[in-house]
Amino acid sequence: MANIQVAFLLSLLMALTFCCLTFAVDPASLQDFCVADSNSQGFACLLIAVKLNGFACKNPAWVQANDFSFSGLHNPGNTGNPFGSAITPVTVAQIPALNTLGISLVRIDYAPWGVVVPHYHPRATEIITVIEGSLEVGFVTSNPDNRLISKTLQKGDVFVFPVGLVHFQRNVGHMNAVTISGLNSQNPGVITIGNAVFGSKPDISTDILAKAFQVDKNIVQQIQGKF
Amino acid sequence: MANIQVAFLLSLLMALTFCCLTFAVDPASLQDFCVADSNSQGFACLLIAVKLNGFACKNPAWVQANDFSFSGLHNPGNTGNPFGSAITPVTVAQIPALNTLGISLVRIDYAPWGVVVPHYHPRATEIITVIEGSLEVGFVTSNPDNRLISKTLQKGDVFVFPVGLVHFQRNVGHMNAVTISGLNSQNPGVITIGNAVFGSKPDISTDILAKAFQVDKNIVQQIQGKF
Amino acid sequence: MANIQVAFLLSLLMALTFCCLTFAVDPASLQDFCVADSNSQGFACLLIAVKLNGFACKNPAWVQANDFSFSGLHNPGNTGNPFGSAITPVTVAQIPALNTLGISLVRIDYAPWGVVVPHYHPRATEIITVIEGSLEVGFVTSNPDNRLISKTLQKGDVFVFPVGLVHFQRNVGHMNAVTISGLNSQNPGVITIGNAVFGSKPDISTDILAKAFQVDKNIVQQIQGKF
Amino acid sequence: MANIQVAFLLSLLMALTFCCLTFAVDPASLQDFCVADSNSQGFACLLIAVKLNGFACKNPAWVQANDFSFSGLHNPGNTGNPFGSAITPVTVAQIPALNTLGISLVRIDYAPWGVVVPHYHPRATEIITVIEGSLEVGFVTSNPDNRLISKTLQKGDVFVFPVGLVHFQRNVGHMNAVTISGLNSQNPGVITIGNAVFGSKPDISTDILAKAFQVDKNIVQQIQGKF
Amino acid sequence: MANIQVAFLLSLLMALTFCCLTFAVDPASLQDFCVADSNSQGFACLLIAVKLNGFACKNPAWVQANDFSFSGLHNPGNTGNPFGSAITPVTVAQIPALNTLGISLVRIDYAPWGVVVPHYHPRATEIITVIEGSLEVGFVTSNPDNRLISKTLQKGDVFVFPVGLVHFQRNVGHMNAVTISGLNSQNPGVITIGNAVFGSKPDISTDILAKAFQVDKNIVQQIQGKF
Amino acid sequence: MANIQVAFLLSLLMALTFCCLTFAVDPASLQDFCVADSNSQGFACLLIAVKLNGFACKNPAWVQANDFSFSGLHNPGNTGNPFGSAITPVTVAQIPALNTLGISLVRIDYAPWGVVVPHYHPRATEIITVIEGSLEVGFVTSNPDNRLISKTLQKGDVFVFPVGLVHFQRNVGHMNAVTISGLNSQNPGVITIGNAVFGSKPDISTDILAKAFQVDKNIVQQIQGKF
Fold this sequence. Notes:
6 copies of one chain form a homohexamer.
Chain A: H1 2-18, E1 69-70, E2 85-90, E3 104-110, E4 115-120, E5 126-132, E6 135-140, E7 148-153, E8 158-161, E9 167-171, E10 177-183, E11 191-192, H2 193-198, H3 206-213, H4 217-226
Antiparallel strand pairs in A: 2-3, 3-10, 4-9, 4-11, 5-8, 5-10, 6-7, 6-9
Helix pairs in contact in A: 3-4
Protein name (chains A, B, C, D, E, F): Germin-like protein
Subcellular location (chains A, B, C, D, E, F): Secreted, Extracellular space, Apoplast
InterPro entries (chains A, B, C, D, E, F): Cupin_1, Germin, Germin_Mn-BS, RmlC-like_jellyroll, RmlC_Cupin_sf
C-alpha cells in the first residue's frame, strides 16, 4: 500500500512539475493593481507556477508599500566597459507593482564619450532627460526615408525616441553624464542591433549578413567574432 | 513511512497554499466568452487558484445559462442610511460571464433628498437613466477648469459621466427615485472622495489634508473622526 | 492511517480536478512571445491546467522553432461535401506561438461552383487572395443599409472582409479554386449563419424563426431538419 | 476679371465640397471628453467636415450639459409592426458626448409575443435587464458547437449577450414587456440575420443561399421577396 | 457684382470659422510618429483646424528634431505658493511629438514641508523618483478597503502611483526636494480633490458636500470660500 | 477692389495650404469600415486635407467594391537586384479599405539564393507561408539571450515572426521561391537594419558605429559608402 502511495505521490509531483508554466497578465488593469507574485519564480513554481503574458497577481491583502518601490537610482552605474555606459533599469523585474501598469524608468550613466549603441525597444516609447552632462542623441525613421533625427542635448533637455525606432546616445562632453528615461511598458525590451545581428546564438549565416551589409564575408566573420 | 508521507503531504499542501494566487484576465476576448471560475475562490483555491488581472475561465462545456444571469434588480435597495441611497451592482462579482466582456449595470435607489456623494470610477464611463423620480446630477472637469456640468433629470432622461471624473446624484423630489446605469467595465471600481481622503486606513496626515483643503487641522480631524 | 491517507489523496485529486480550468492570455504582448503551452490540454490538466483568455506561455527556454511552424498548407482540402469547399486553418490551435500575437492564416479549396456559405468572424478582419481560379465574393453592411458589396475575383486579386460582417465566396469557374487569407486574431472564430440560426443545439423556437424570416413554421422546421 | 473670380470661387467650392469627409475618433480618450461636433453634419460640412473613425470634438469651452443628455427613454416605442417590438437607442447619434467614451443604452418594448429577431452587435456586448414582463432570451455560440444558451427572464432579471454572438428576445407573457440594455460601444452596430442574408441590396445569389440553407431556390426567392 | 463677391467671401469665412474644430488622435500609432500640428492652434485654425481625440499630425517631411525636444527641466520651479510645491510638466503640450506615443514626464519641486495635495491622474500611472531630498508619499486604494499605502522615500528611491488612485507627496526634510516622474499618457490629466470638490465652477451644492463629508454646511461654505 | 479680392483669396489659399495636414485614424473601428479617402492626397489636399494617425474615411455612400480590392498579387516581382528578392505589399496604400482594419498582405519573390536581409516590423507580427521553393528563415530574440530561432521551410510550410523582432529569409534552392505573408497592421512599417544603421540620411557618426560593431572606423565608412 505504502509503495502505491509513494508511486502515486511521485507521479503527482511529476505531473505538477511537468505543468510548471509561468503566468503573465496584460496591461489593461481590471483592479487597482496586480502586484507581480514573486512566488511564481521559486520552489513553489515546481508545483503550480504558470508563465503568462505578464505575471499573476499577489493577493491584494498581502501587498506592502515595498512592492511599489525600489531604492538606489541615485547610484552611478559602472561605466568601465567598452561602451563607457551603464544601464540601471527599474521595470517590473525591480518593482513587482509595475505589473499591468504599463510604465518603467531607466537611469543611464555615461563616461566621457561613452555610448549607448544603436538599439530599439519593441514595446515602448522612451522620453529621456539629461540630469548631468551633454549628449548627442538620435533616432532613424523607417523605410524608405531612413532619416536621422538627432540633436545635442544639455542638462535639463528632454527628447523622445518613438516606439520601435533605432536610436542611440553619446556623451559629447569631458565629464560624466547621467540621464533618466520613462518608458511606457512594464517590460520595454531591448534589442541591440549589434547583438541581434552579429551576436545571435547561433550566428546568422555569414552569407546573409554579407549581403545585408554589402561587405566581404570575412569582415562579417571578423565582426561576429567580437560578439 | 506513514509519517514521512504525512510530512510530505503537509509540505506539499503548504507549498500549494503558498502558491495560492488568483487569476484575472484581460477584456479583449479571445473566445466567445470566458466565464469567471468561482472555484478559484473556494477550498480548491488552496491548491491552485491564482489571482490574475481578471479571472480564469470556467470550462466552456460546463457553462450554464445561469452563469450569464442575475435576479432581483427590480428590488428596491435599503436607503435607510445617512446618505439616503442604496447601490445594487451587477458586475463580474454577480454575473461571472461578464469576465472579459467589459460591461456592467447598477441600480441605485434614492430616498427623498437622498444623495450619492461625490465619487468616480477609475475604469468606466457611466450612462445613467432615471426610472422613477427626478435627480440633480453633475460632474466636474479636470484641472485647470474644474467646471461643474450639471442638470436636473426627470423620468426617462439619460446622462453621461465620463470615465475618471468626479460626479454625484441627488434626489430633488419628495418621492423615492430609481436609476439604472450601464458602465463599460466588468469591474468599474468606485472611489468615494470622502472615504479615500478622510477615511483611509490609516489616515492621511492631518497636516497634508489641512493644506489640501486650506482649513485648520482640528476641522480635518473632526471630519476624519466621522469616517 | 493508510485509509485516511487514501481519503486525503482522493479528496486532493478531486479538488485539483474540480479546479481544472484552462488559461488564455491577451494579445498585447508583454514579452517577445508567449508560445501556448500544450501541456494544459493533457493529463496534467487534471492537476493544474486553468482556462484563460488565451493560453499560458511555455517556458521560453524550452521553445523550439517547431513551435512557430506548421506544415502542409500546400495540400488541397477535401471538397467532397455538400458545399464543395474545404477549410484548412492555421490558428493558435495549429501554431502555438501565435498565442498573444494576433494573426492567423487559412487556406480554402473550392470545387467548381463550390461555396463558402454566409458566415462572419466575430474577432477578425479577413484579407483574401486568389491563388487559383476565379471567385465571386461579397459582404453585407450592417443595418439599416444592408448593402451587398461584391466582386468577381481572378487569380492574383485581393479582397477585404471587414470584421464582424457577413460574407461569402463562390467558385464561378469550371476548375478548382484556391485562396489564402490572413485574419488579425489568433482565434478569429467562425459563425456560419445557417448553423447558428437553424442548426443550434437545441433549436431556436420555430415561432421566432418564422417571424424572423417571415415564412411558415413548416418551412422553418424543414430547414432545421437539414442541420 | 470678375468672371475669373467667380470661376475661381466655384472651383474652390467644388474642391472643398469634394473634400467633404466626416471625422470619427477612437474610444481611448485623450482628454476628459470629446463631444461629437454636430456642425460636421450641416452646411459647414460642405467646407470642411471630414469623416473619421468616430467624430471630431466640439470645442470644450462650448460644451453644455445638454450635450451629455437625452430625454424620453420612459416613452414606450410603437410595437405596431410585424415583429411586435420597438427599439429606442441612445448611442452617440442621440448623445454626442458618448463619442470616444465607449458605451450606450437601448430601451426595447415588446407587445405580447413580440420578438426581437436573431441579430448580433459586431462591436459590443449587451447586458439586458427586464423592467416589465417576462421574456425568453438566448444566444448561440460559434462553430463548431453552435450551442443555444437560453433562459426565461422575469422582471428584475439581468442577462448577458457576449459580443458578436447571434441572440434574440421574445415576450412570453400576455402583457407588454420592457427592457433596458447597456452596450459597451458608442455605436454597437446591429446586423439582423434576416436583413443581412435575405434582404441585402442587391440580393445575394439565390444559388448561394439555397446551398447555405439547404433548401430549394424558390423557397429562397420567396423569403427574399418578403424583405 | 463685387458686393456679391464680398458677401460670398464673408459667408465663406463665417462658415469656415464656425467649423473651427480641433483634432486629436489616438495613441495606437499607425506610422513612426504623428507630431502634433501646432498650426491648428493659430490663425489657420480659423480655416480648418478641427479638435480631435488627440491632435492632427504635422507633415512628416516638415518634422524637425526640435519637435521631439524640450529644454529647461533642470530649472527649479517656483515653490512660493501656499502648497510649497511647483510642477513642471512635459506633456504633448510641451513636446508635440508625444502625440500618439503615450508617455510624458514631470518635474516637481518641493520647499521644505511643501506638499503636492491629494489628486489623481485619470489616464496614467505615475512612476516617481527622488532626485533630491526626502519625501513622504502615499496612495489610497478604492472602495471598500480605502487602504493607505505610504512610504518615506530618500534620494534615489522610486515609487509607483497606480492609474486613477488618489495620491500625494510631502517634503519631510528641511531642504528643498526634487522629483522626476514618468506617466504613461501624452496627456495624463490632473484632478486635484480640493479643486474638484470644493472649487468647481459653479460650486457643488453645499448640501451635497455637507452629506459627503458629514460636516455642517457652514464648514463646507468656509472651505469653498478658500477655493 | 478686385486687387483686394485677389489678395484676399491668395492669403486664404496660403493659409489653407499651410494647414495642409493629412488625417489617419486608429484601428479600433467605430463603424463597419472607414475606407481611406484618397482625396486627401490630391489637389483638394491643398485646401483641407489633414494628416491623422491613419486616414480620414470616404463617405460610406460613395464606397465601391474596388475600394476593398487590389489586383496582381500573382505577378512575380523583379528580383534583378543585389538582394535577389522583390517585395509586393498590399497595405492601406494599395487597398484603402484596410484603414482601421489592422491587417495587410505581402508577396515576396526570391531568385535562387535571393535574400530578404535582416529587418523588423515595428507594428506587426508576420505569418509567412511558402507557395513555391524552399527557404531558410529565422528571427532573433531580444537582449540578453539574442537566440536565433530558425528553420528551413518547404512548400506549404508556415512560420511566424513575432512583432518587433529582427528576422530574415533566404532562398536555399536552385529555383525561384515565392511566399505570401499576413501582417496584423494596415501599415506594418519596415526597418531594414542595414539601411537604418549604415544608410541613414545623414549618417550616424562613424565613431558610434565603430563602437557598436567593435570595428575600425574605416570599415564603418566602407559599409556606409555602400548605402
